[in-house]
Amino acid sequence: MKILGLIGSYRKLGNTEVLVKEALVESQRLGAEVDILRLTDLRIEPCKGCMACVFRQEECRIPDDWRALRDRLVENDAVILGAPTYLLGSAGIIKMITDRNIAFQFGNLQHAGKPGAIIGVSGVRRWEPFALPMLNVFMLTCGFKIIDQVMFYAQGLGEILLDDSAMKTARKVGTNVFEAASKPAEKRNYVGEPGVCPVCHQNLFMIKNGTLECALCQAKAEFKKVNGETKLIFDPDSLKNHRWSEEALFEHFSLAVLPSRPRFLKNRDKIKKNTLKYRSFLTKKNCEH
Questions:
Q1: What CA–CA distance (Å, rounded) separates 243 from 197?
Q2: With a cut of 70, which residues of the chain have pLDDT below it?
Q3: Burial letters for 87-115: b for 16+ Cβ neighbours within 10 Å, e otherwise?
């Protein structure tokens, strides 16, 4: 069994790296072959939005390290992802790679269903509302099944080492990933702290027409009185057919994404003609003083 640690921090031996490595130490102790990949050492370019990976099923044309990351994910049986929190959310490298993962969404994921765990690190409580959701999206777009996720709190470089409880929790993450990878895919269940959403275990919701909707997986819920107590009741259909279900992804691809190409090609000449007036508007030459 091979377990890969992904480190999304620019700090060497910072709290994120320490926690991911502590989890890997425990996985290794249990018998796994472990390795790390520092995401911040990769050269990752922004997604250009050309959609050749979607409409033409082509390899991503950008000559950087994204394909090397993809290959490492395929080679391993499980992943532990860690990243620090910058301004309410995860470090930018997480978003950069997530955008490129659109190339995964409409092909065959060779690592679909493999177990993954998330380690978030924040310096200050209540300043990390988008950190775990962003890490979730990274993992979900890669096709991994999240079986554990934890947010840790530490500010100084390596300060987490002074928190025995946190280090114990990190080791538990390593145990959970190892045990999940040892089971058949259908028996890999979520074992982390339960969030409000029963699908993605996040606490990030939007209000739409009086209904609560999980911003991450689109599970829907309403507040209802049950035996005199107000409870959040989730719609069972949305729990089954959430955003990341196989059926929902296929529907999104076939009904929302694929039809956009012939529609654009049909109107391309008209669009090109209508954009002429913008080509010279505020160009460098016109902006010179």
A1: 13
A2: 105-111, 284-289
A3: eebbbebbebbbebbbbbbbeebebeebb
Per-residue b or e along 19-56, where b marks 16 or more CB atoms closer than 10 Å to that residue's CB: bbbbbbebbbeeebebebbebbebebeebeeebebbee
Please give the structure tokens belonging to residue 250: 């296929």
**CATH homologous superfamily of 2-187:** Flavodoxin domain (3.40.50.360)
Q: Encoding tokens for residue 205?
A: 């919701």
Residue with tokens 């107000």: 230
Count Cβ atoms below 10 Å from residue 193 Cβ, excluding itself. 11
Q: pTM for the whole thing?
A: 0.92
Interatomic CA distance for residues 220 and 208, integer angstroms: 9
**What are the extents of the domains in the chain?**
2-187, 194-289
Model pLDDT for residues 51-65, shown as the tens digit of each residue:
998 888 888 999 999
Residue keyed to tokens 């107590």: 229
